[in-house]
Specification:
By secondary structure, this protein is an alpha/beta fold. Helix content is about 40%, strand content about 15%. It has a domain of about 200 residues. The strands form two sheets. It has a six-stranded mixed β-sheet, sandwiched between helices. Strands 2-3 form a two-stranded antiparallel sheet. The chain is elongated, with a radius of gyration of 25 Å. It comes from Anaerobutyricum hallii.
Amino acid sequence: MDTDIKMSVKATDTKAQYDNKAKQLLGHKIILAYILVNTVAEFKGMKPADVVQYIEGEPYIGSVPVDAGVTNIENQDKVVGLNTENSEINEGMIRFDIIFYVRMRDGLSQIIVNVEAQKAEPSGYDILNRAIFYVSRMISSQKGRDFVKSNYNDIKRVYSIWICMNMDEHSMSHIYLTRDDIIGSHYWKGDIDLLNIVLLGLAEDLPEKVEKYELHRLLGALLSANLKVNEKLDIIGNEFQIPLESDIRKDVSEMCNLSQGIEDRAYERGTANGLAEAVIRMHKKGYSIEQIGDMLDMDIEKVKAIVDNE
C-alpha cells in the first residue's frame, strides 16, 4: 500500500476514534445535565448535579438510526424502544450522536433530547435544515412507541442540540415554532413548544469564566484540541465541581491522546508531501535517482517510487 494511503487510512481511523470519544465524553450524565440547565427552560437555575436524576436510563450514543423506518423496530408485534435496531442490517446508516429521555420536574411528562457534535459548521449543507430533519424524525418516530393511533396529545417535546466547534465567535440560538395570527384571534389548541432546536457555536479560544459563557467554557475545555489533560481536568473539577470519576478521567486522557495522534499524522503527511515535492523538483532539474537519494537522505527505492508515480 502507498505510504500516503497508509497515512490517510491511519488518520481517518484516528479521527473516527476521536469523534467517538467526543461523543462518549459528552454522553456523561453530569455533562448532559449542564447542557440541560443551559438549554431547557424547566431546568434553568438548577444545579446540574440535581438534574442528573432526571435523565432516564443510559443515553444512547451512536446507536439509534435517524433513517425513517428504523428508529423503531417491531419485535413480536411490540415496539420495544429507541435502541432496538439490528446493527448488522442497518450498518452504515446515519445515527443520532446522543439521544435520551428526560423526566420533567413534575414527575409525569418527558422530553426527548438529542445532542450532536460537529467539528465545524458544515459547508455541504445548511446545518439548520439538518437539525429540522432530526427533530422531525424525533417526533414522527414516537408513533407506536410513545403514542398510538390518534393520541397526538401524547407526543413528547423534543430538543435537538447542535454543538459546532471552530466557529468565529461563541454563540447560541434557540429555534422553535411561533404563532402568527393573520385573521382573527381564535386560540388553536396544541403544544406549540413541541419542536426545539438549539445551535451552540464554540470559538477556538476558551471564553472567560462568567455565567453567560458557563456552558461554552465547559464544552470548550472538554473538546479543545489545544489543552492538555491536566488543564482540562483542572477546569472540569475545580471550576465546575464535576467529580473526576475514573470514566471521565479516562475519556479525557484518551481524547487528548487521539488529538495528539491527529496532529502527528498531519505532521507526518506534511513531511512526506514536502519530500515528494522536493524529489519531483530535483528530478525535473536533471538530478539522478542516486543523487536525490543522497542529498535528501532517502532510500533509493522510495525516490524511484515517487518519480515513477509522478
